[in-house]
Each structure stands twice: as C-alpha cells, then as structure tokens.
Amino acid sequence: MTAQTPSSPTPPLGPDDWEQRYQEGNPRWDLGQPAPAFQTLLNGVDAPLPGRAIALGAGRGHDALFFAQQGFEVTAVDFAPSPIQSLREQAQAQQLSLNLLRQDIFELTPDLAGQFDYAIEHTCFCAIDPSLRTAYVALVAELLVPDGELLAVFFTHQRSGGPPFGTTPAEVRQLFEPHFDIVTLEPVANSVSARQGEEHFGRVKKR
Asked: Which domains are delineated in the chain?
C-alpha cells in the first residue's frame, strides 16, 4: 500500500468505514433524537399527510422511527450493519413496523422506483462525496411518485473538508430545480446548539 499523494482523490467511504465509526463510539452526526426540524414539521399545521416514506442513510433511525410513530409507512436504508441492527431493536421495543434495508442507496433502483410519497433526508446528502450529489438528486426523483416530496435537513456549514460535506441554499436549488419545485428552503430556527446557524430545512416536490 502506497501513501496517497496530496493530489490523489480521496476514495469514497464504504460500509466498512462507516461501520468502524459506529464501533468507535457515539457518532457525532447521531443526535440521539429526531431532527428538531422534523419534529416541528410533523407537529405543525402544515404537516404532510402520512404516506410511504424512505429514510436514506438512516443511521440508527431516530428520524425513521419518529415518522413511523406519526403513522408513516417507513422504509429505512443504511449500508452499515450496526445502525440497522440498532434500528431493528428500537423498532421492536416500540412495537413499530419498519422495512429495514442494509443496502447502498444507489442500488435501490430500479427495484424501488416510484414506490414512495416521501424521501427523508438528514445526514445522507452531507455524507456522500459531493461528486455524487447529482446522482443523489436523480435517485430521489426516481424513488418518488409524481408530486412526491423530499423532506430534508441540509447541513449548510462552510467548513472545508468532510464528511460532513457542507452545502449552500444556492447549491441545493441548482441541484434540485431541474427535477423538483422548491416548496420551502429556510434556515432551521431550533437546531441543536452544536448546529446553530448550520442547517436549512427543505421541502422539494417532484414534478
């Protein structure tokens, strides 16, 4: 194995890399609770009606479980084994029925194309290499039914490097507008203290 030169591209993180991060302790991207923006959404007057939802890069599944508690039919996807096992145990303890898939999100189609009313995004978009973001948008569009929605918490920090890789509202609009209408994209007012000023909540509807 040779040392990587400064000009060499960093290879994308795979399942073993993310599994190691879970094994090393509490991952810093895991809030231990649903994202506050999702709690505000589902408890608000403009809450989306329950339907079929897919949580991409679900991790330990706090968001997936919360949506299931609110009556959504949830499929949760992650390609590392530990978070899927943790999510399975939590779902059983809460007597919630979730469909759990240990799979790379980019291998979900064509099998699951057009199967979902909603896609749930929290820490997946910021975890994949930014070069894959166009493919991510195309994937979400393929998974959703017409007029289906992506419900997303975007990590809009301005730090270099990653993961988590930051984004901007302008980039989100540029990436999604070819396939989606931007319903809302605004700063999250009730982020946890460590993420204050670094999150935007978006609802984008597939055309």
From this structure: 32-41+49-206 (3.40.50.150)
